[in-house]
Amino acid sequence: AHIVESGGGLVQPGGSLRLSCLASGFTFTDYVISWYREIPTGEREMVARVGKTNSSTRYSDSAKERFTISRDNAKNTAYLQMTNLKPADTALYLCYASSGFLSTEYWGQGTQVTVSS
Q: How far is it, in rounded angstroms, from Cα 84 to Cα 106?
C-alpha cells in the first residue's frame, strides 16, 4: 500500500495551494482520510479529516474558514485546498488513511509547504 502526497511548495503569505493525496494498494473507500502537518520539532497536528464520503469533514481551529478537504473516490485521491496561507502554516503536510474497523493505517511521506515572502 502507498500514499503519495504532492502539491507543496513555496508560496507568499495570502497565497493558495492545493495538496493531493494519491492512494494505492488498498480499498480507498474503506478509509477515513486526514491531513496532518509536522513542524521541525516533530510535533504533528491534525489539520483536516474527511469521512469515507465527502459528507463528513472536520477541521482544526487554525484550518477552519481557510482550508477545504475533499476526496474523489473514483480517483483514489484526497485533496486539501489551502487559501490565505500564513507563515504559521509552514510545515510538512502528511496524508493519513485510517480504518478503525480494519485496524489499519497508512501514512505518506509528506509534501513540504513553505509560506514566506
A: 29
DSSP string for residues in the chain: -EEEEE--EEE-TT--EEEEEEEESS-GGGSEEEEEEE-TT--EEEEEEE-SSTT-EEE-TTTTTTEEEEEEGGGTEEEEEE-S--GGG-EEEEEEEEETTTTEEEE---EEEEE--
Which among 10, 7, 12, 9 has a CA at the least distance from the CA of 84? 12
Burial classification of residue 6, based on how many CB atoms lie within 10 Å of its CB (0-12 exposed, 13-18 middle, 19 or more buried): middle
Sign, CA torsion 59/60/64/68: negative
Per-position pLDDT tens, the chain of length 117: 999 999 999 999 999 999 999 999 999 999 999 999 998 888 999 999 999 988 899 999 999 999 999 999 999 999 999 999 999 999 999 999 999 888 899 999 999 999 999
